[in-house]
Amino acid sequence: MGIQTLLSRTFLSWSSGKDSAWTLHTLRQQGVYDVVGLLTTVNSAYDRVAMHGTRASVLRAQAAAAGLPLIELPLPWPCSNAQYEAVMRDACAAAVSDGVETMAFGDLYLEDVRRYREERLAGTGITPVFPLWGRDTHGLVREMLDGGLRARVTCVDPRKLPASFAGRELDASLLAELPPGTDPCAENGEFHTCAYAGPMFAKPIPLVPGAVEQHGDFVFADFTLE
């Protein structure tokens, strides 16, 4: 009789974008982690994911397509770092009481971001993991697209990319047009995406393009559901 291995109960930090989506796919392939929920902070004033600008309605459709509970953490606007950390502390305490042992993140190579997450989770009973860490981003984005991931650009930093990239499909054509020095996975904040199809979803999320507008320093493309 074989020995049954218990998988680590895991929350995935979910931004709605391509890296989160591919992290979910990777975790499921590894067979070490039992992803039991998607954890997302939502700007309560606008009912959207911070920076990505993804509507909460789309976010919930993603979770449904992934077959996972969505844990929405409302943040005030504006939100101080102290307020953010207080919300996350409460969320971690609740997660531990529910048997969660691991928190997965889709970070790729920014050392300061990883260190911040590790420091915040130290002593909580939750271990951070980074399944995509250190991957070559040129190869990683090709792997995503070849693997069936589909995403649209929801936010652009026009100081780094032309505003016309907002709303576009993340595909080979877009990648070929990126200015020299741009990270193809946009790890340096060049753009953000909303994943709508791929092996992590049971079915595609039907996105409907809306307005493209600049708010502050960023250009956002709005998407709703059919």
Structure description:
This protein is an alpha/beta fold and 226 residues long. The chain has one domain: HUPs (Rossmann fold). The strands form 2 sheets. Strands 1, 2, 3, 4, 5 and 6 form a 6-stranded mixed beta sheet that branches. Strand 9 and strand 10 form a beta hairpin.
Short description:
The chain is an alpha/beta fold and 226 residues long. The protein is built from six helices and ten strands.
Structure keywords:
alpha/beta, 6 helices, 6-stranded mixed beta sheet, 4-stranded antiparallel beta sheet, 226 residues, Rossmann fold, 27% strand, 10 strands
Beginning-to-end CA distance, first to last residue: 50 Å
**Ranges with pLDDT <50 over ≥5 residues?**
none
The structural domain count equals 1
Q: What fold name goes in the CATH topology slot?
A: Rossmann fold
Order of helices and strands: EHEEHEHEHEHEHEEE
Q: CATH homologous superfamily?
A: HUPs
Sketch the major β-sheet. 6 strands, mixed
Give me the count of strands.
10
The fraction of residues in strands falls at 25-35%
Mean pLDDT: 95
Bin the helical content: 25-40%
Tell me the name of the CATH class. Answer: Alpha Beta
Radius of gyration: 17 Å
Specify the structural class: alpha/beta
Shape: globular
Quaternary arrangement of the chains shown?
A: single chain
Question: How many helical elements?
Answer: 6
CATH architecture classification: 3-Layer(aba) Sandwich
